[in-house]
Design brief:
Shape: elongated
Radius of gyration: 14 Å
Number of domains: 1
Strand content: under 5%
Number of helices: 3
Length: 70
């Protein structure tokens, strides 16, 4: 598995988890403050589309995970 796929999987998981914990109608609701995590992940994905800088991608590169196309 390459770094790009891992980034997509982690970002999607964070978004789904934070929505489950932050939306009132969810059975897993804790606090609406978890929606800030959703916003943070979305903004990070948005900026990385323009700048090509992704912190998780940098971490994965240091761990030896190969980068590749989606």
């Amino acid at each position: 598995m390459n770094a790009d796929r891992i980034v997509h999987i982690v970002a999607g998981s964070f978004i789904l988890l934070s929505l489950a914990l932050g939306v009132d109608v969810s059975p897993f609701f804790v606090s609406q403050k978890f929606l800030l995590l959703t916003a943070f992940v979305g903004l990070n994905l948005f900026q990385s589309g323009f700048t090509k800088f992704c912190p998780l991608n940098s971490i994965l590169a240091k761990l030896g995970v190969k980068s590749g196309s989606c």
